[in-house]
Write a structure and sequence with these properties.
2 helices, mainly beta, 8 strands, 9% helix
Length: 202
């Protein structure tokens, strides 16, 4: 995925959200043998936990009575499928979410962060891309946050909220399949860190 950076001409600071890259993989998943409990082959396979509430019987059971860290996989959706993500270092305490080097079989929980609505703010920001002027339209968003057991697909927590801002971003990334002239005010790690803590690190 090619990324294009757009820098602000006005120098106004805005609200930005950042996620790490997802671990690659297809939609298939299987156990080590046909009769073994099913486990995800990649972290991307855990999208079905968010989409359909279907867990993997071969994953470790979630026991909320154990006062220890329960590793989670972060999944993000902007309305067109789910992507496994790795948070930027420092956004969450180490060990809360699976890292690039972690195996998906460690996941006890899946945290599903989903954009459910986008509303134009009416604000247009003067920015620059590849040395050329670019006008960016900004959008406020609504989101849905869920904490789901990776093994059973049982939902442990749900929260809905809104992210609003009338400021322009300083710098944004857009991929080839996104509109380069749109910027969405997304939910940030600090917005839901405290909400997932009771489940990941009770």
């Amino acid at each position: 995925m090619a990324l294009r950076g757009c820098s602000s001409l006005t120098g106004t600071t805005g609200t930005t959200g950042t996620t790490g890259g997802g671990s690659g993989g297809g939609s298939a998943s299987a156990g080590a043998a046909a009769d073994a409990p099913e486990v995800p082959l990649t972290t991307q396979d855990l999208e079905r936990v968010c989409t359909d509430g279907l867990g993997f019987a071969g994953l470790p059971a979630y026991d909320p009575t154990k006062k220890t860290v329960h590793p989670a996989q972060l999944m993000n959706s902007t309305g067109d499928g789910w992507t496994s993500s790795v948070p930027v270092e420092g956004d969450f305490p180490k060990g809360w979410f699976l890292d690039y080097s972690d195996k998906p079989e460690r996941a006890e929980l899946v945290v599903c962060v989903e954009r459910t609505e986008a509303t134009a703010t009416g604000k247009v920001c003067d920015m620059e891309a590849d040395g050329k002027p670019l006008k960016i339209r900004t959008y406020n968003t609504s989101y849905r946050l869920r904490v789901v057991e990776a093994r059973t697909g049982k939902e442990r927590y749900e929260h809905t909220g809104k992210v609003e801002s009338d400021e322009c971003p300083v710098y944004i990334f857009t991929s080839d399949d996104e509109d380069a002239d749109k910027y969405y005010n997304e939910v940030r790690p600090e917005d839901y860190r405290g909400r997932v803590k009771p489940y990941i690190a009770p």
